[in-house]
């Protein structure tokens, strides 16, 4: 029986190594990245020997010294935080602004568990209709044509834009597909064309207008709304920026190097102040096959540095479309791994691949406006020992939304980050012990890789820096990080927060050792970095940083919670996405909790006496990760991604029945949560947003 064979395959699968991730997650989410050799084998070791010279030369401020917040710069014309909400006073005398709820205990329930006093509802599930005429979901009769009009699988990034008083535009991306729990009797060795094409249609992004319910946080999709859209693995995308038309991007199907079919593995993203969404193509490598059979042209280093399969791919898409077979179309793999930009306000717009932001396994594309009005975009490259990147535009953000900023991201400078600790290397013991100055902290530089017209990397043209960004960054001494994921600017205090999910190979044999920015050996619970751009300007080329959290069980001495009383801290493991509420509290979602409970969403005060007191707000169902947190005055929204994705779970016998219960199939879904018994404007619970995320840049002439 197909079912028993799959179980056997799963038994034979390697033990989970990515946190508490199941082998299914490893297999489908990132192509078993953790079982493969770390792609970054460059000689780019931590540059501890230049610490002293860098510190003395730069004379940088540390994070703690940089004090000005959004309030200080708002109202000064085009400022760093022109979109910041009313800056809420960080008055902690009364307790915890925005966090007046009792944290939940870690949970293993097959449910979304929220604090007492909060209610929840499902907004939309995998397969629910979006476009006019799309049918209701029937997992036994799914087709690609149906899926193309329905909500996709494994929702990850989640963002909203106000549309009118009663409606918002919801933008969600769909990272990947879990075929063994999507399709009845799925045979991984012999997927059918229909299954493959359903999977193509279940990837990508969804734009869905939702109607807000008066008096609570419920959101109802408006099926068939003129703005509703699906982007999939077969939609047309346009390449913009310096790599447009590059010889590296030309294929049999596209001799121009301008047009790409589809987007793959979209992970974290961000709403821009000019009203678009940026979404990072992450583990795109896993969909391509036969990297070892590439003839001429593409160097093997370009295959291995991105972890592209040398033989068959997991999903066998190469059997159904040559573009996934590198032996036939070697350049197709170079057309994925970009940050894509979509305009949710224009249903006729062509989505863009913004080549100026480089090609990596992008996690996030979060934007903020520099003091002089230019756009700044941060993006992590989510792989063990990979890097953090920043783009600074040449042009200034203009009023007028997407149209007025259509080429904003096509000219500018791409940087990669180098972190330098300020404590002696001998004091970083790998066990999380604070160095004698009391902090894992230091300074950093944004090392320029290229502008749109000039490369700063020896041996690389501009287009080569952008297409082979990892290889270029290896050459300039970027700091190897513990899986940089979401990175986002706090609109209240102006600092930048980055989740580093984990890296169990840090400091192990043959791998890069600990450094002050990645201070734990075999870092299995990850950490959160707090950064401050010099002069509070997002366009700065230097920054200060400190580690805010070393995650784990607070009873574990290798953990650190910004000096908070450990008895007040919720256990937290594998931070992934970050966001902020209107008070400037940091919210963190997790992926791969290794503490025996399910993943969750956590809030952390960053100022005052409660700084560092991690509080768990919710827990997600069996096998799921928490994604796309969106925290506003009215409600909290999350994506529940890959429920039921545990070892041995199948369509016939899934390990989760969320959200529909009974013996139903698990369905990745968007959830909305609100505080009961309070009008939306009168909540004491999670409060409102987060500057650059939901709002368009105001017209200064208005
Ligand atoms: Fe798709 Fe790095 O998480
Ligand atoms: Ca230090
Ligand atoms: Ca993620």
Biggest sheet record: 10 strands, antiparallel
> Pairing-aware structural class of the strands and helices?
mainly beta
Low-confidence blocks of residues: 1-19, 46-94, 679-702
User: What ions, cofactors and ligands are bound?
Assistant: MU-OXO-diiron, calcium ion
Strand % is: 25-35%
- Nearest-integer average pLDDT: 88
Report the principal-axis shape.
Answer: globular
Indicate how many domains the architecture comprises.
1
How many β-strands, per DSSP?
Answer: 31
Helical content (DSSP H or I, runs of 4+): 10-25%
Number of helices: 12
- The CA-CA distance between the termini, in Å, is 67 Å
What radius of gyration results from the CA coordinates? 23 Å
Question: Which features does this protein show?
Answer:
single chain, 702 residues, mainly beta, 10-stranded antiparallel beta sheet, 6-stranded mixed beta sheet, 12 helices, binds MU-OXO-diiron, binds calcium ion
């Amino acid at each position: 029986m197909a079912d028993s064979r799959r179980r056997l395959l799963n038994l034979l699968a390697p033990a989970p190594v990515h946190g508490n991730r199941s082998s299914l997650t490893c297999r489908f989410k990132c192509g078993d990245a953790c079982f493969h050799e770390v792609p970054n084998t460059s000689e780019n070791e931590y540059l501890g020997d230049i610490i002293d010279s860098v510190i003395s030369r730069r004379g940088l401020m540390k994070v703690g010294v940089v004090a000005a917040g959004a309030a200080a710069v708002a109202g000064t014309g085009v400022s760093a935080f022109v979109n910041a909400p009313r800056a809420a006073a960080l008055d902690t005398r009364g307790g915890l602004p925005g966090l007046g709820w009792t944290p939940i205990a870690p949970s293993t329930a097959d449910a979304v568990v929220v604090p007492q006093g909060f209610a929840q509802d499902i907004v939309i599930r995998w397969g629910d209709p979006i476009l006019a005429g799309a049918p209701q979901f029937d997992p036994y009769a799914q087709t690609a044509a149906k899926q193309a009009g329905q909500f996709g699988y494994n929702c990850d990034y989640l963002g909203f834009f106000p549309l009118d008083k009663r409606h918002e535009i919801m933008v969600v991306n769909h990272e990947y597909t879990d075929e063994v729990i999507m399709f009845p009797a799925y045979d991984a060795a012999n997927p059918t064309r229909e299954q493959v094409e359903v999977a193509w249609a279940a990837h990508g992004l969804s734009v869905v207008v939702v109607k807000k319910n008066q008096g609570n946080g419920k959101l109802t999709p408006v099926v068939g709304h003129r703005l509703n859209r699906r982007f999939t693995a077969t939609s047309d995308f346009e390449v913009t920026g310096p790599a447009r038309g590059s010889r590296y991007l030309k294929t049999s199907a596209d001799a121009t190097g301008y047009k790409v079919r589809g987007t793959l593995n979209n992970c974290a993203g961000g709403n821009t102040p000019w009203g678009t969404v940026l979404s990072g193509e992450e583990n795109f490598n896993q969909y391509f096959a036969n990297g070892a059979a590439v003839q001429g042209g593409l160097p093997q280093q370009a295959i291995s540095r991105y972890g592209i399969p040398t033989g068959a791919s997991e999903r066998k898409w190469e059997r159904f479309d040559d573009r996934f077979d590198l032996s036939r179309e070697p350049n197709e793999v170079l057309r994925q791994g970009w940050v894509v930009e979509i305009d949710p306000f224009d249903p006729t717009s062509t989505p863009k691949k913004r080549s100026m932001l480089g090609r990596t396994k992008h996690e996030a594309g979060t934007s903020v406006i520099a003091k002089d009005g230019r756009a700044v975009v941060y993006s992590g490259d989510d792989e063990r020992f990979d890097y953090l990147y920043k783009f600074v535009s040449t042009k200034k953000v203009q009023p007028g939304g997407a149209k007025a900023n259509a080429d904003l991201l096509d000219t500018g400078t791409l940087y990669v980050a180098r972190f330098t600790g300020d404590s002696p290397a001998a004091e970083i013991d790998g066990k999380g012990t604070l160095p004698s100055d009391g902090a894992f902290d230091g300074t950093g530089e944004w090392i320029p890789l290229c502008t749109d017209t000039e490369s700063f990397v020896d041996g690389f043209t501009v287009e080569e820096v952008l297409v082979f960004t990892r290889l270029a960054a290896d050459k300039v001494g970027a700091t190897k990080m513990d899986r940089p994921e979401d990175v986002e600017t706090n609109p209240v205090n102006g600092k930048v927060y980055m989740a580093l999910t984990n890296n169990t190979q840090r400091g192990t044999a043959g791998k890069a050792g600990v450094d002050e920015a990645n201070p734990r050996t075999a870092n299995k619970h990850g950490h959160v970095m707090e950064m401050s751009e010099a002069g509070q300007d997002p366009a700065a080329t230097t920054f200060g940083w400190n580690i805010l959290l070393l995650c784990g069980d607070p009873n574990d001495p290798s953990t650190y919670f910004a000096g908070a009383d450990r008895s007040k801290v919720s256990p937290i493991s594998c931070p992934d996405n970050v966001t902020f509420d209107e008070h400037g509290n940091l919210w963190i979602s997790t992926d791969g909790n290794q503490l025996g409970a399910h993943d969750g969403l956590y809030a952390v005060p960053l100022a005052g006496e409660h700084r560092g007191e991690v509080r768990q707000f919710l827990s997600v169902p069996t096998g799921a990760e928490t994604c796309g947190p969106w925290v506003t005055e009215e409600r909290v929204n999350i994506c529940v991604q890959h429920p039921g994705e545990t070892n041995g779970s199948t369509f016939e016998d899934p390990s989760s029945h969320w959200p529909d219960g009974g013996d139903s199939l698990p369905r990745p879904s968007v959830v909305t949560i609100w505080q009961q018994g309070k009008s939306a404007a009168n909540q004491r619970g999670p409060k409102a947003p987060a500057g650059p995320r939901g709002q368009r840049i105001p017209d200064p002439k208005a």
